[in-house]
Amino acid sequence: MLLRTGGCYCGSVRFAADLVDEKAAACHCHQCQRLTGHYWAYVTALSDAISFQADGTLSWFHTSEQCERGFCGHCGSLLFRRRTGEKVIAISVGSLDETVALRLTDHEFALERPGYYPLPVKAQLFRTDRSDPSGVVHTAPAIRSGARRRSAPGG
Ligand SMILES: [Zn+2]
Ligand SMILES: [Zn+2]
N or C: at which end does the chain have fewer Cβ atoms within 10 angstroms? Predict the structure, then answer.
């Protein structure tokens, strides 16, 4: 049992979740960069292992056809990600009240990482999602930083 409580910055969303394990993942994808300003770190719980004490301002935004993000509509805190067909919900590590036992072990979309920060050499690096084992990248030096694609001004 890894029961954790958490919530958004303003306290309008409060929840308790029994986490799947103590492993946290960082997602370096372009979508998470936009949503968080850096990379997103999360833990997971089964969808039926999370309960809400307050959720009146919880809003969901589709970031793709298969994926939506849950955030507080009042203070803007990013709290959750859920995907169509998955039984787990991803929870922002930063929303938890207690994180001592957690370990950041997995790094997803490592190739989309911008060049301004390094990845730990001994971390598990994934080309895409960590649920895709064929995408494991074993050594950090093989990772090149992904250039952020922006459309040129006026073009
Ligand atoms: Zn809030
Ligand atoms: Zn991401």
Answer: C
pLDDT tens, residue by residue, 40-68: 999 999 999 999 999 999 999 999 999 99
Q: So what's the pLDDT on residue 138? A: 58
Query: What would be the CATH architecture of the domain defined by 3-141?
Result: Beta Complex (2.170)
- Between the CA of 81 and the centroid of ligand 2 the distance, in Å, is 9
Asked whether the CA dihedral 82, 88, 91, 93 is positive or negative, the reply is negative
- The Å distance, Cα 61 to ligand 2 centre, comes to 14
Query: Which single residue is written with the structure tokens 């390094």?
Result: 118
> pLDDT tens digits, residue range 71-110?
999 999 999 999 999 999 999 999 999 999 999 999 999 9
CA of 135 to the centre of ligand 1 (A): 35
Strands in 28-77 per DSSP E: 40-55, 58-62, 67-72
> What's the whole-model pTM score?
0.86
Interval between CA 42 and ligand 1 midpoint (Å): 18
